[in-house]
Specification:
Length: 226
């Protein structure tokens, strides 16, 4: 297959904080005759600067980044009216995150465990101006919308910000404050602040209740996925 000059290939920026996965994804994309990775970043600040500078056609964004969530990058891109399509490639196999990503401006959502062929399909579909969602995400989001139309009441977890939700999930998966801080690239005081906000929003009186409710929520979400 003859490769086109870079000026004729769709330019893609990857924002992903795992070097090995980022390298593999870039290699996969650069093998395509009509696509090229023009930049890579591992955090929201550098990703935003790179996209602003290079103005690619597509940005592939991970949700779990150090310092700030990939959802914040999506919101920043939309707030700045940057003309770039975004595809979320995430470890989270969960319609709740897909819904939040779409609300933040993403045009597609796919999980990292999908085959490389599906990743390329998602990339091309988004570049073509279409929306890409895995079928299981689409059905759950539609079901949630139908349910919401019958009742406008928010679920307690819906009151959490994107970052608070991420911390809540990690608590439910047994991560300690130090482990969560390391995972998200923030200090222990910041994680303690998130924990306090989550307890307040969910009306949980202490750390034990927070741990119990987070674990229960994670088990319920995992059961829905399996």
């Amino acid at each position: 297959m003859k490769t086109r000059p870079d000026s004729l290939r769709a330019r893609i920026v990857i924002v992903e904080d795992h070097p090995m996965f980022r390298e593999q994804l870039a290699h996969l994309i650069n093998r395509e005759a009509d696509l090229v990775v023009c930049g890579e970043a591992d955090n929201v600040r550098d990703g935003l600067a790179l996209i602003t500078q290079l103005q690619p056609q597509l940005a592939i964004v991970d949700l779990t980044l150090k310092g700030a969530s990939g959802l914040e990058l999506l919101k920043d891109l939309r707030a700045r009216s940057l003309n770039v399509l975004t595809l979320v490639l995430s470890m989270h196999d969960e319609s709740l995150y897909a819904e939040r990503a779409l609300r933040a401006g993403a045009r597609g959502y796919i999980t990292k465990h999908e085959a490389s062929t599906k990743v390329m399909i998602a990339i091309r579909q988004v570049l073509a101006g279409e929306l890409y969602l895995e079928p299981r995400f689409m059905s759950r989001i539609v079901n949630k919308m139908v349910t919401a139309s019958a009742s406008t009441a928010l679920q307690p977890v819906d009151r959490l910000t994107d970052r608070e939700l991420e911390v809540f999930e990690l608590i439910g998966r047994g991560q300690t404050t130090r482990q969560i801080g390391t995972r998200l690239g923030v200090g222990l005081t910041t994680i303690d602040t998130y924990r306090a906000r989550i307890k307040e929003k969910l009306r949980l009186e202490n750390a034990a209740r927070l741990q119990t409710e987070a674990a229960r929520w994670v088990q319920e979400r995992d059961a829905c996925v399996s």
